[in-house]
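Re: weekly structure request thread

Next one in the queue (181 aa):
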Amino acid sequence: MDAADAAPPAPLGPMPAPFARVIAEGVLDHSRAALVGLEPRDGTLGARLVVPLIRAAGPPVLVDLGWVPQGRRGPVPDGPVALLGFVHPGDAPSWLSATDDVAGRHFYTFHPPSIAAALGLPGAEPFAVVRLGPRGTPDPARGIPRPPNNHLGYVVTWWGLALSLLLVLGAFTIRRLRSPP
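Done, posted below.
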């Protein structure tokens, strides 16, 4: 992911590597906009705005333009656009996933093939592009996501538990040795 973040963006081609930085060109189809997820920010509930990008040199691709407050879609560019973003392979739905509201175009699992089929985009790319950019409405991603690194927390927790157990064992042993038989 560090290499993808440091690399210059390349034109979006067929089957790019996951999380590669790309420039996607085409026209955004406002009539097929959808929302994905449910996420609070600063006390406001919202979702990610996903709009199909109709490309002249390839099949349509879903573009995650960014977070918008619930009930608002935000300004979406008209005409030809060139968007900087990264390739998102999507998430696989599971039996624990919330049920998508296909009629209301609100999806809770970011699975590009399912969303594209529901929006009537046959032959769409099996991945999506997540737009990168500065804060605004829609509020795009700032960079390529990084997996969490909780290892320090695990170390502190387990060594703390081990030390606590040793202290309890020491107190028990001292008490046992001092008590009369």
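The mean pLDDT is 91. The first helix runs from residue 2 to 6.
Next request, please.
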